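Side project, low priority. Logging it here so it doesn't get lost.
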Amino acid sequence: MSYFIKRLCLVAFGLLVTLLIAEGITRIFLNPVDYLWRNLSYDPVLRYRIEPHSAGHDSWGYRNRHVPERADIVSLGDSQTYGESAPAKYSWPSILGSLTGKETYNMGIGGYGPAEYFYLLENKALELKPGAVVAGFYLGNDLADTYTAVYTVERWHDLRSREILHSRNDENNEAKAGETPPVKESPPVKKPLTGELKGKVYGAAGWLAENSVLYRVVTASYLGDRMRQNMMLDFGEKITMLEAPEYGIDTGFTPVRRLEALDLEKEDVREGLRLALGFFDSMNKLAEKNGVRFLVVILPTKESVYGEFIEGNKSLQYSGEIDRLLRNEGQVSAEAESYFSEHGIPYIDLLGPLSEAAFHEQIYPGNYSGHFNENGNRIIAESIKQYLDKLQ
């Protein structure tokens, strides 16, 4: 019996050594930041942040190999700027750095919005003495994220609408009197940076996902796009699929979720738009004060990029929500552009270049994800470079 146990221990030890060697080799060829789940910690203003050096992030907790003493260009944004569906070297800030030959520092974090962008510009980005700051304005959820930040973080208390606060107080008073307050929908609070499946995984699997690149490579290969998509359908995600073989399009959308964060009939969404535009104005003024060029990049939803294919298409599931979403997004975009023009805020709208590209190349992953792949990020970076070149 003792002989059997010894043999079993030797086999287990050999397996462990083999896995450790394989993990080491994997890390030589692959960047951990592209695979490992990130560790988050609480922040009183940002609400959460990625812990420094967690999952391959730099000493500030951002998706860069290191923090430079100086950066020519600093990018601010959410998961679209972070580059959620692409390797770090193919995020649009990284591609922009390659195209321009300039040091570019990526400060994008999923779930952040204009409130966080302004705070990071004021308290961190300017430390790098940039010549330009580029802020991504993702129409898909930046309004909801701005509302959430302002109405949950004490720092932004003075920016809250008195009318909304009074409305809340009235509802609370009605509730105290024994009446049921009216139901008031709020923009969804996104679970940041955990991925769609992380909340479903616990224990050893969760620990491995945070610490083993090899494990993540194997599971990512096993859980292909279609399998992952089917799992999300089982979890209740409302997905619309589109096939247009003549254009090489086979992809999915989440219009119901997107509409929740862009429905201008909701008081919270309208308030989020007001607040977001105000933060961009503050960012522009702060940049000018410090002699830094500022640029807002308006990033459309995937639904708007493929609008020519899906708008008014009654054969698609959730077609009503799609049409409402596109109308609302168009209105938000128009109001934002008008505001930027009136307040002298430099901006570019990338709906045109991205929609044109969708006809001849895949600019999103082959699933329902609304994050850009390497091709989509390249188009964003090229458009930004063209704008910056004109200023020289």
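Brief comment: The radius of gyration is 23 Å.
Revisit when time allows.
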